[in-house]
Amino acid sequence: MIHTRYLPADRPDTAAIAADIIKNGGLVAIPTETVYGLGANGLDEAAVAKIFEAKGRPQDNPLILHICGPEQIELFCHHIPQRAYDLAEAFWPGPLTMVLPAKERVPRRTTGGLDTVAVRCPDHALARQIIRLAGVPIAAPSANISGKPSTTTARHVLQDHDGKIDAVVDGGPCRVGVESTIVDLTEERPRLLRPGGIGPEELIAVLGDLVVDRAVTGELDPAQVVKAPGMKYRHYAPQEPVVIVSGSREKAAAYIRRHFQPGDRVLCFEEELPLYRDCAPLSYGREADVNTLSAGLFAALRELDDPTVSQVYARCPTGGGVAYAVQNRLKKAAAFHIIDAEEEP
Ligand code: TXA
Ligand code: MG
After folding, report:
1. Would the CB of 99 count as within 6 Å of ligand 1?
2. Which of 189, 272, 295, 325 is deepest in the core (most CB within 10 A)?
3. Closest Cα to residue 179, out of 36, 28, 29?
């Protein structure tokens, strides 16, 4: 066990202390606009190894390098297409990560052995100040233990890592609440690897083109879902099974109320709470304002990660923009288990 320092945002030397820890090869959880990241010097193999150990993360799962702005892309990437700068101009600082060919100086431990590296400039002033003061790119995955719902508050970070990391910087709850959108720019056509805070429509408006990777739409291939072990897709998930119930408010409520057993919980929109009065409902935000859903999703999934809960029935928003990312995270949490209440008798 080590002592994990708690560094509040209003302490004047917070950024300097965090940057010093990073420079010295330590681990600091930092706030970003999406989720908290577990940061270390992305150019220091030994420091990066500590991230994998603290998270229990598979070694071949690459990390994102957090940088201060578009001018730093060329420090770590080569063969940078113009569209990378177009995206940075449109969305940085912000929840967009780009995958580009990696320069030699980026350790392969950081890239999970790949010749490409993911870069992003977070829209959080304190995070950028820490990167600037550290003078190195900060490699940071989401600060959850691998497989668990991501961390959107400093308290979540301490739940997972108190006594294992050097410090946590408390920058308040994350504004976006789901991780960044990831676009791979290393092929001829730009490819969406993970939906996030920037919607696919917004990307297409800048790029004029976008391929959606199969990893995003894995649920569309029923043969694969049946063949693959459920655990392969489970991520962001509480310990008990999660089932998404789609369809109209009324049909979904009828289905859930018919199947609900004591010990189950319902994860729903605030507007639906009255429909589930006897079904232990938990709201994660308002359906009418999808930003409240993205901001509240992971905190709610963490609250439901409780051994006394036997099953969760979840309601999922429809539509594009950040709703597309909320759908993606919920489907992964549910291991793509979706029941269409409109088709149930
Ligand atoms: O919003 C975010 O992106 C947050 C905050 C902390 O910045 N970070 C985050 O990191 O979500 P993480 O490690 O939880 O997710 C990064 C994802 C992983 O799925 C990883 O496989 C993928 O990015 N990734 C990283 N480098 C890649 C690369 N070179 N090629 C393809 N995928 C990559
Ligand atoms: Mg993650």
Report:
1. yes
2. 325
3. 36
> Hey, which CATH number is domain 5-212, 3.90.870.10, 2.10.70.10, 3.40.50.880, 3.40.50.740?
3.90.870.10
Q: Looking at this protein, which amino acid is placed at residue 307? A: P
Q: Residue 182: CB within 6 Å of ligand 1?
A: yes
- At residue 215, the pLDDT reads 82
Query: Residue 108 has which token pair?
Result: 């392969």
Cα distance between residue 265 and residue 102, in whole Å? 45
Handedness of CA 142, 128, 162, 312 (dihedral sign): negative
242-343 CATH choice from 3.10.310.10, 1.10.630.10, 3.40.50.11030, 3.40.50.300: 3.40.50.11030
Is there a contact between 278 and 262 (Cβ–Cβ < 8 Å)?
Answer: no
Q: Please tell me if the CB atom of residue 63 comes closer than 6 angstroms to any atom of ligand 1.
A: yes
The answer to whether residue 254 scores a pLDDT higher than 60 is: yes
The reported pLDDT for the residue numbered 216 is: 86
- Whole-model pTM: value is 0.95
